[in-house]
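Hey, I'm writing a tutorial for new members on how sequence and structure tokens pair up, and I'd like a real worked example in the thread rather than a made-up one. If someone can provide the structure for the chain below, I'll link this post from the tutorial.
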Amino acid sequence: MTRKEDSTLTPTERIARIKNHYDVCVSNHWNAYDGKARGIETIHSVHAKAIFAQNLADHLASTTDLPLRRVFKRSISTGVDYYFLHRLTGRTETVIVEYGFIDNKRDFNYYNHRSHFNTAAESVIAGICEKIGIKYQPVKAFEKQSLKNSSQASSSIGKRVESTFKGTLRFYNQPSWRDEDVYGQLQKGQGFPEIIEKLRVGSGEQYKVKNSKGEIFYLTASPKYVKVI
């Protein structure tokens, strides 16, 4: 997530939060044209294959009542640069998802139901999981797993936590995911000697940790990126 609150990012700020930090990026948008056009579109880079973009579009079309309009690529042209995320995010594979045409009455009415909105979001999450090789857990299954995880959280207190991420893993000076709160980065195998507690931060979780000098920091608690020893 580039942000968890209602805020505006400049193209430069958006790129800085994405470029080379992640394997994939999904940029979420709504279309608008003439009130008649409708349906799902996904746009991939001219330098990437259409497989991921097609898969996301297929997931959306199969779980919503919206037609699949097209999956395509487009080179930069004169005027407004809508495709800077494709060009400037380095090794991160970016797909732009247009969930429908907000000026089309049928598309608008579909998303006017919160359950439909959530269905579309979950279908994209499922597509991302498939892309990066993680088993997708539906919301209800995830909630049950979260209860199990909460009972296990106390078992990590006082233990060492290390990065298992092949790249650099950020840690923070307060419970946050914001770039301005990043204090430093860990290489794979580096970590902190003591976990103090596990916290819910936004839609994710972090460990409150202490280094050998007694300084407090915050690190993702996702088992995808760290392990407790």
